[in-house]
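Work Package 4 report. The design task specified in the project plan requires that, given a folded chain encoded as structure tokens, an amino acid be chosen for each position. We show below one input record used in the internal validation round.
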């Protein structure tokens, strides 16, 4: 039977955290660009394409966190029936979910996000555009966001607002930005956060 100790839990959490942060970086560097290429076959406006992908990232994290919260309540209720030992119930629940990620119905989240985006009035796309074309990106982001909730503390993204003051500690400017502009025109990618601190910067476009 496995024994629990804070030191061991910390090492496991640290290793898992590093892998998830690296995965977040890879999605930004590669899979985001693949999604851009797919959308560009239907949409000529690059700004609209980048806005769509940013919304997909935000919605993926929101959906995954909601699903995780519901699952954690269920798991804690089940484990509480016969939980014993020094390991806190909260930690036991997080460990259990981390080891049984198949409990997360990611397909349900993906479908809900796609339906929501297809009906989003803030995304003025041609009728023939179906966001199923970026299903793989949404799925990867949902799975990543879900796994990030099993960390102590969890990782999350910061939500941006168009027109906000540019913050160099949170964002990089895109190469086509006006580097003298003090305000964010729109967001390309969200920053990754831990307890209010920036772990990985996001990307924005600044314009006057």
């Amino acid at each position: 039977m496995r024994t629990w100790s804070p030191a061991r839990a910390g090492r496991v959490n640290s290793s898992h955290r590093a892998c998830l942060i690296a995965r977040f970086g890879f999605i930004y560097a590669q899979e985001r660009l693949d999604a851009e290429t797919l959308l560009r076959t239907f949409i000529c406006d690059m700004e609209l394409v980048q806005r769509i992908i940013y919304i997909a990232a935000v919605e993926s994290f929101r959906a995954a966190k909601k699903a995780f919260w519901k699952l954690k309540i269920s798991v804690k209720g089940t484990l509480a029936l016969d939980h014993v030992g020094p390991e806190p119930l909260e930690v036991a629940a997080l460990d259990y979910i981390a080891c049984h990620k198949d409990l997360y119905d990611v397909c349900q989240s993906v479908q809900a996000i796609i339906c929501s985006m297809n009906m989003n009035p803030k995304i003025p796309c041609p009728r023939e555009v179906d966001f199923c074309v970026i299903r793989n990106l949404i799925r990867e982001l949902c799975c990543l966001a879900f796994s990030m909730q099993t960390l102590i503390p969890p990782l999350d993204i910061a939500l941006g607002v168009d027109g906000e003051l540019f913050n160099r500690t949170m964002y990089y400017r895109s190469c086509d930005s006006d580097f003298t502009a003090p305000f964010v025109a729109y967001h390309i990618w969200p920053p990754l956060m831990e307890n209010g601190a920036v772990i990985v910067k996001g990307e924005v476009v600044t314009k006057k």
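The helical segments are 6-40, 46-79, 89-99, 106-118, 135-148. Validation will be extended to a larger panel in the next phase.
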